[in-house]
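Notes taken during the Thursday session

The instructor put the following on the board and asked us to keep it in front of us for the whole hour. The protein is Sulfate transporter. We were told not to look anything up and to reason only from what is written here. First, the residues (615 in total):
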Amino acid sequence: MTNHENDSSVAAQDEPPPPSFPRGRWWDHHRHRSPIGGGALRLLRERTIDIYANLSLSELSGSLGDLGTFIPLTVALARERKIVLAPALFWAGASNVITGYIWDVPMCVQPMKSIAAVALTDVSSSSSSSSSSSGATFDAGSVTTAGILSGAVVLFLGVTNLMEVVNWIVPMTVVCGLQVGVGLRLASTGIRDVQKLTWIGGYDCITLAITCALLSMLWLRDNEDGTTRVAVGDDGPIEREGGGEVGRASSSTIIVDSTIASSDDGRAGTLTSDDDANDSMMEMGRLENDGVHRLETATTVNPQWLSSCEVMTTTSVTTTACVPATEWSASSAPRTVTASPPTSASCRFARVVWNRACCCLNPFPPTPHPVGIYLFLIGCIFAGITLGTANDDSGYDLPLGFFGAPIVINALRNVTPYNWKQGFFQGTLPQLPLTTLNSVISVCCLAHALYPERRDPSLVSKDRTDAVVTRREVCVSVGLMNLLLCPLGSMPNCHGAGGLAGQHRFGARHGTSVVVLGLLKMFIAIFLGGSALTLLDALPVAVLGIMLVIAGLELVGTGVGMLVECIQKEKDRTRDRIDASGSGDRLSINSGEILRKNTLIAMVTAGVIVVDKIG
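Then, after some discussion, the predicted structure tokens were revealed:
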């Protein structure tokens, strides 16, 4: 080796590593590598590669997690001619794709519920009152103007940073109560939808709902023994409950794209990988073609955190077979053996197909069940049976047609000044409290709680609760989404904590899930736009209701967990205040009073949401 090569190698070793950024803020992660002038296309290409790399069954399952809310509201509005379904679907899908590229979290796009409720309630009231004139109804023009004005106000709050004032005024316990109330409201809505069905009066019945509920309980059972799926970061283990990208370390087979180097004490090793060193967290649970897990990043592994490993070295990878951590001893220390030759591609494919065909009956799968895919397939099967056996009197628009439906329309063509007035007072004003609390503050707090490994350190140091996705970013997203797309035929949309909780519960962990969902919506709007209403209306209410119940209960659980964290933080602040005043010998923490006060505020908020049907 020449002196020039030695100098270059030393310079490469002395060069400081690129800055590390949370994965939820991917534009910062790539900014230091993007040249001026070609940065946008390079970021887009790298983000597309990331989305494809994160594509898995869990992401596909999670993408369907908010359909229990999206489909009933969208179909009801389209049936009553409050929106045009094809452009509404197309622009909702485009919004999904854009948000999935911007944020690496499953940020859903849902109809604004308060505006939808006003529009649907106006239909029932106008149909029962013969004296109401057509000009006084909350028609499609009023829905469009309500969405535009709501977007303008939310955008103003975000650009001027006034949303931080709202967040400062609203206590965190109110946000927790809001999540509990909205979750209970979603669950009760799903149960009421199922109650309207008959027990065995057709394919869509209560019996189907009960069957789906029992199967979902089987598929979603995890942590029943008190264990928690663990991911290991640079500072130690990161505990994460539920499914997704963190798998069961004690019962899974792992493939490591690197080698294991033991430390001096023999109890910990370092995994070295060729992947980007900024991704400092091990992610288990991505299913590869051979049906096992892949461990992709570099970190230090301690058998106290995971389990001791028996190492088997092949020509290209190092595989590990995990044993319980309690059995760690000198006899179970890592040892190198020779792996058997790999099987043929056809055998591996047949094994994967067979495992996937039988995996839905496995109560203890190596990876979490893609429950969203299972339920959606059940719904599609019964929808196909319903449409295949439908007659001329069924009410479905058959035969199905392809294309023919415009995806871009001029929604402001017949709008009158009265529509603007009615849209603001009857649509925008009732929607603003729900948008600011649930679609901005609550959804940012939920993302902050669900994805702690993606928090921005600069925001965490300021003790903010929106370190994954900021409130200003969500305000700008909701504002532009309605201000620009509602005139083109989009329905009023927003982000919601219920949809995020539902997608997370069904397995989504990245923006890949919402990108896939957005592409699916756009595909239906473009190729099946003429029959989109028939297809969506044929999906069984029993299946959609169960999906809505699961999403609601997930949001309730997250809200309760955040409430417990709020109570603990107030206890810690009270303890610090007592210690700072030097009155520790005379004062003590009244834990009961702190618990009663915070729980009362949260439960009153949840009760208002449930009783007044705001959720």
